[in-house]
Amino acid sequence: MTTTEPPVTGTAPGPGSDGSPDTAGGGIERLHAFDGLFLRAEHLNRIQDHTEAHARALGEAGGPGVVEGFTVVLEDDALHVGAGLAVTADGVGLRSGRMVRLPLPTGGFREDGFWWVEAAPATWQYGEAPVQGAYCDDPCSGSGTVRRPYEVEGVRIRLVEALAEGLGGQPAKHRRNHLANWWFRVERLAADPWPYRSDALDLPRDWEPPGVAGKPAGVRLAALITHGDGTWDTDTWTARRDRGAPSAERHWQLRLGMRPWDVFMAQILQFQAQLADVTGESGVPGGELGPLVHTLLRLGDQDYLKKRTKVEMGQDLAELAEGVRAGRYGAPIRPGQGVHALRDLGIDELPPAGYLPVEYRDPAEWYEELRLWMSTYLGDRVELRYCGVTVADVARAVEEARHRDRIRLDGRARLEVPVDILVPMGPQEQPATRWVAFVRRERRRCTEEGWQPGPDTPHEDTDGSVDVALGDTTVT
């Protein structure tokens, strides 16, 4: 919202105007030095203020966000925040050169409460230097004292309490994903995107550029969640936004119902980080040890031992050890093993695109195994289609899904969500990776003439997203 300042009516030059109605100051001032000027601390400070004001203006023009570092780790009942660089919404550069340790909150937790972990500007003075006396006094009068001559522009790590609707009523394993889903919706709707407003039947009449408004002084680094039983979770990508586009670009993308790059990346990374945390280091839920036992029995068979040299046996054992370390020895996931479903892992909603780990036990049956993995991961509220692609195709498809709606797995949407599973393929028509990508499918019905509304006409779904029930042959 823009504000109108009263016009300048005076004639005396000042910080706000040169005295004429067609000029305006903006807080960037420098020293106008001349011979005969008695240089004082005030003038030296004005020189520094001029440099700072220019730097802040350029920082603000480039947009807010984290540039690098500022990792947040929960360890030993404390938060450990690493060194890093970020820029606030009003252009202040935040640089930290060391690890900061912050104690966890104690007592008085609200039911739906959580905390933002933020980096905010902090200044302090240090050092000692004698004051030789004021310039009107005798410099040798001995009236001086000691002051601190240096000022640090650093970072303060702080916890800011907030509330997320319904967070306290969630089971512990669902709280992290619930908070992420809640905040991604709030973030999108806070920009008042007209395609998703209640009055979106008509085009808006207000297309004024963004005005000058108050900007947050800190940069969010993570969310801190309590489970009420003494256990905690941190989630980086619910809160953190890496520095991306300038503020004006982000404003119009959000206003038009688009998703800025930094928000899209945060949504993908939030899912990937949570999936890695709940599935262990290998990224694949563990299973039974049947395949491992089978492999060991094969290695101990007498015919096998007679036909293999020591070098070949050593290679086979090294391969087996690598498979154990990589988590590849577990039974194929079967329907009914709900512990492996994403919903049972605490993930009820996905970004519009992302990546899932998968293991193929039998190369000849890889497609059937893949379908089993995906149906177990995603449940029955998605409409799956499988596509063989190159790795470059995956990158393009993920990028194209940037502005589409998120994928709900909890059945709140009336229609099954159309999702493509992208399988990078090798030269022998075999999967080339132990991962696949998923993307929410583009669904549109196009015709040159004679279009008639029908059951496959796009319509608003329960979450405000445009969805359409089409067969694969009509998808473009």
Report on the structure:
The structure is a single chain. By secondary structure, the chain is of the alpha+beta class. The protein has 2 domains: 46-258, no CATH class; 350-474, no CATH class. The chain has 10 helices and 20 strands. It has a 4-stranded antiparallel beta sheet. It has a 4-stranded mixed beta sheet with strand order 14-18-17-15. It is globular. 23% of the residues are buried. The model is unreliable at 281-290, 331-339 and 462-476 (pLDDT under 50).
Can you give keywords for this protein?
2 domains, four-stranded antiparallel sheet, 476 residues, disordered C terminus, alpha+beta, 10 helices
Mean pLDDT: 82
DSSP strand tally: 20
Give helix and strand order, one letter per element, not per position. Answer: HEEEEEEEEEEHEEHHHHHHEEHEHEEEEE
Mind summarizing the main beta sheet? Answer: 4 strands, antiparallel
* Computed Rg: 30 Å
What structural category arises from helix and sheet content?
alpha+beta
Residues in helix, %: 25-40%
Question: What is the strand content?
Answer: 15-25%
Q: In one word, what is the shape?
A: globular
Number of helices: 10
Distance between the termini: 40 Å
Domains, number = 2
Strand order within the widest sheet?
A: 10-7-11-12
Stretches with pLDDT under 50, minimum 5 residues: 281-290, 331-339, 462-476
SSE map:
Blueprint: H1 41-62, E1 65-69, E2 72-75, E3 78-81, E4 84-87, E5 93-96, E6 100-103, E7 113-126, E8 129-130, E9 146-147, E10 150-163, H2 172-190, E11 219-226, E12 232-235, H3 236-239, H4 247-255, H5 261-279, H6 290-299, H7 302-307, H8 310-325, E13 349-350, E14 353-357, H9 366-378, E15 382-389, H10 391-400, E16 407-408, E17 417-424, E18 435-440, E19 459-460, E20 466-467
Parallel strand pairs: 15-17
Antiparallel strand pairs: 1-4, 2-3, 3-6, 4-5, 7-10, 7-11, 8-9, 11-12, 13-16, 14-18, 17-18, 19-20
Helix pairs in contact: 2-5
Region (Disordered): 1-26, 447-476
